[in-house]
Amino acid sequence: MRKVRASTTDIKRPRRKFRQARGDARRKLLLETALILVRQRYIDDITYQDIAREADMPLASCYHFFPGKMELFAELIDYAGPWHKFVTVTALTKPAETWPEVYEHLSEALISAYEADLAFLQLFSTWKIPGNVYAGREPGILEAAERIRQAVDRQFIRPRFKDEVGVFAYATRISDAIWRSSLSETGHVSDFARREAQRAATSYLFNYVPPILERRENPIEMPALALPTAMPEIVAGLIADPQGASRRKTRLRVE
Question: What is the pTM of this model?
Fold first, then answer.
């Protein structure tokens, strides 16, 4: 009987898959450990060594996945992104009597989330993680602008104009600049900053959108306003139970 030998490639393939799976698990461990820590402390007060220690991982191994803590936190923005989308979509789909009220619902929801959770504040405002670290900042602004545009169109009939997403993106930047100034000065978005941001953004948009729009009898479906479904378990836990176990100092492990 002829003997069949396994090729070197056949032997190495399962090992490669195992190493890949273990690497993915360790990357996830670092992200979720960082998420737990950033709910308790400011990013400025968290070192890469702190994250490595809490993850029970050698610091040298951490550098294999992220060159530094800020790069880790930048990726965490995307990892926890469904949390932000859930908050914004829930706010933007609330019934509104006027279209500026849609914008007001969004502002109130974001500021409430900033005040309720230190991680949400630090990850999803531009206060602690600058755009030169997080490459997704500008695409995120454009995505938020499209979401706001569709939220207005969902409930109101408005005239069209050139570069609509760009215009709504500038309104978003106006609010963000005022909020960031307040955060830098006081550590939170003050009532005054909230009002001024709302006033400045809507005043800018009044150049393109009339203050009074016809309200639709029934809201229409908009693709950008679908709630997120696929997300990491720890993020789903934050949405379902914001005060739950992920706030506690839970030590995660890779099997």
Answer: 0.87
